[in-house]
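Milestone M4 deliverable, item 7.
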Amino acid sequence: MSKLDELNSWHSDWSELKAVVYGLGVSGFSVADTLNELGAQVLVIADKAEAEVVDILDVLGVQHLIGKDPANVQERFAAFTPDVLITSPGIRPDNSLIVQARAAGIQVWTDIDLAWRVRDKAGVASQWICITGTNGKTTVTQLVEKMLVTAGIKAAACGNIGIPILDVVRDPAGFEVLVVELSSFQLEYINSIEPMASVVLNLAQDHLDWHGSMNQYGLAKGKIYNNTKICCVYNAGDKTTSELLQAAVNTDSAQAVGFTVNTPAPNEIGWVEDILVDRAFVDDPSVALELASLSDLNSSIVLSPHLMSNIAAAASLARAAGVQPSEIATALQQFELDAHRIQLVFAKDGISWVDDSKATNPHAAAAALASFDSVVWVVGGLLKGVDISDLVSRYASKVRAAIVIGLDRAPVLDAFAKLAPSTQVFEIVSEPGEIMNEVVRIAKDVAREGDTVLLAPAAASMDQFKDYAQRGEFFATAVKREV
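Output delivered:
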């Protein structure tokens, strides 16, 4: 038995562990802080770091090496003789330090692996519900959290959703269930966790520049099903998710449950017109148990097939945790979507202005485009190696005009020229601070009554904006000023 095998509790003796923490973003700092609290020997290595974060490490007495000299980094790493390397998930597996660690037989973790081992800090070890997918992860994570809390379960959403999982584990509140959003980056590295329930919501092209291929991206996502104990949830309308489930290991004791926007078959949860029904967690699957209806939804939410799919997925996970129908309906009444997710910013003269800046890949943008009949589409950014042609072809008939922004404009312009030559296309070459002002002025001229001006870029934002939130905020500000 190795040293790492013995460290399965917050209350284990971590003092002999030597751990390198690679990367000093939000999750990296939480790892370093946690390991220091556990009494482990820690070395932080990072290309860059905020000065105030480094100051905190100094106060804590944590060793650190900040800089980009590969030879110095690798020499210091080897001299430290670590037992484990805990990496920030955005660092690619072909990174030289990751390769060096694996070649030396050193395990590579992320904060998720550490959190699984120390999840009993506040007492009884928390149960986990784990959620991934190309699109909809955050909405489903928040919905499940809301449903559990409504049922009186002490639950917290964390992980890729923005709240470091170790911060939640160390919270003295002592949560019974963690609802963990997992990215493909985190899943690429993940070792062994045992969720009570897990789901792959959907699978479409994204992050191919990072994973190298669609196959590798799918393999990473599918790891979420491994070792699931109670329920594996898949998308009945996306056969790839069920194929990933079939390839998973150690799931024999888990019930397989599908979710759908259509009438559910046995062992599925879905919709009969505007009624959400359960044919999975019932004694007699020939009987459909009503869970909620569309009338339960908060009136501020823009309804779409994508949202209906997310609700069905969330209800499947919540039912696996024992949440009752009335509690699901109550949760939907109280639930509010995050900003920048198909969010109505303004409406005037029969024209709606909608911010879906969170649509950072074609699959997410498709969900927004499918929700409206006639669109002035604001599209473009960093494409991350993804081909946007299919999206342009599929929704060209809905697009009155396209306004193309971002660094990777050429592939978008080329797709419209080849696949939708009759669509009016505008290219924005303004400075970042003026982009959305120009977008709104053009959209105002071309939009007609009944149109939706839709910011659904199908691309990442970091080429011209701090993040997708800033992109959406600049759009909303420009709309309210110019319209």
